[in-house]
Amino acid sequence: MTVKKSIALFLSLNMLATPVISSAAPLIPGFSRKITIPVPSADALPQVRGTSWTGVADITQAPGKSELVINQNAPQAIINWDSFNIGAAAAVRFNQRDSQGNPQKDWAALNRIYDINPTLIFGKLSADGKVYLINQNGIMFGGGSQVDVHSLVASTLNMRNADFMDRALRFTAENYQNPAYVDGDTAKNALLPPPSMDAVVVNQGNLTASTGGSVFLLGPTVENSGTITAYAGKIELISSAQSGHDPTGKVPDITITELADSGTNDIKYRSLPTIGAARNLEGGQLLADEGKVGMFGYQVRQDGL
User: Fold this and answer.
1) How far is residue 25's CA from residue 35's CA, in Å, rounded to a whole number?
2) Most buried residue, 196, 237, 283, 294, by CB count within 10 Å?
């Protein structure tokens, strides 16, 4: 049997070195003026934002355990969170099952995080289907973290509710945490101050998509020094920094089309990126046998596997 692995490097300009990020005391460039971000407490769990969710029956914490369970009862769920940190001894589980208890790999949960700090995941995150994590201030999967889902999106760019409900992977760098932000009012939102272009998405852990699933990491800077696996699926590191904004707010910065042909370029930029980087660092592994690995951005660096 021939094992196929397609690798796409888009706009591989300015191939620059980058410092290795420490996993012991994470020094995360760009999250907050390059200061050390403390590791969350071992039992840290996400904090839901009131009862602001749809498509979810309940969100419960197992008695006496550092485990949070989200029971999804519809094909699409939207949940807002004050924070979504997972400590090294903690676990978060998305049960995405129909009324007969059958796992549904195509069910999806959009998790929009309203945290002024980056999301820090050092424990376990699992799901039957798709999990989308959105935090405009950055996302880090620390060393020792374990993610097991059908598909994963971790992005600093927002995914609007309407796009999510249309099952469209459209992402826009907009300041959804601003109190004046109104979902769906694209013209008004385009006038708000933009989110920080310093935020990064970092993986130092183990991200695993089930067969045929995908892992998409999006941010001004995206770095992998861990292991990402998507057998017969897709892994894409997408640097999203662009100059200016669409004044109407209607055209997304990034559009991903999940095409069946793994050799087809499925990433569409609103305009060419002018800054930012996608980096697979030394020791980083992007494993998508019989699938596709893509790295996109103004700077692209491949030092890993």
Assistant:
1) 10
2) 237
Domain count, the chain: 1
- 99 Cβ contact list (under 8 Å, min separation 6): none
pTM of the model: 0.87
Beta bridge partners of 207: 147, 228
Residue with tokens 């980087």: 277
- Residue by residue, pLDDT tens for the chain (305 residues) are 334 444 444 433 332 333 233 334 444 444 434 556 788 999 999 999 988 799 999 999 988 899 999 999 999 999 999 999 999 999 999 999 999 999 999 999 999 999 999 999 999 999 999 999 999 999 999 999 999 999 999 999 999 999 999 999 999 988 999 999 998 888 888 888 888 888 999 999 999 999 999 999 999 999 999 999 999 999 999 998 765 566 666 677 899 987 656 556 688 888 777 678 999 999 999 999 988 999 998 888 898 87
Helix (H, G, I), strand (E, B) or coil at 295: strand
C-alpha–C-alpha distance, residues 18 and 265, integer Å:
26
Which residue segment(s) compose the domain that 263 sits in? 5-302
Give the integer Cα–Cα distance in Å for 177 and 175: 5
Residue that is written with structure tokens 């992402």 in the block: 171
| Cα 279 from Cα 220, distance rounded (Å) | 11
Q: Is 32 left (phi over 0), alpha (psi -120 to 50) or beta?
A: beta
Tokens 């050390």 label which residue? Answer: 36
